[in-house]
Write a structure and sequence with these properties.
- This protein is an all-alpha fold.
- The chain is 63% helix and 0% strand.
Length: 154
Amino acid sequence: MLDIKYVREHLDEVAEAMKNRHASFDPEQFSALDVQRRELIAEEEALQAERNRISKQIGALMGQGKKDEAEAAKEQVRQINEKLEAASAARTEADDALNTLLMSVPNLCDASTPIGEDEDDNPEVRRWGTPRDFAAEGFEAQAHWDLGPALNII
């Protein structure tokens, strides 16, 4: 899976690479999901900060003997916790959607990789060693679906 930060910073390059690989990638969808995820994270963090601030006030109010104000603050914390649960669920959903999209994006090809429709468009750059000629050696290769039953391993 490609790094989200890399995709975010090189969106045009990734989109072009996916086009060259004949892979489907919608940069607008990625951007929308990424922005949505970031906004939800910010909202969740703001709610947590507000909850923490009010929780500190509750302790101070209880110490001052202002129980009515402390109870009102506790109710605020309960309401914030409900909002926080909803925000957390929405963020998790956005994370999942973005990760699903990123997992569908294949790795980027090297710049030296030729662009083509299929393997026929790829030139052989080099060959290591000499390929064996099994037919000349009297060996007949068998398909794996024939070989398995013959060896009683399937």
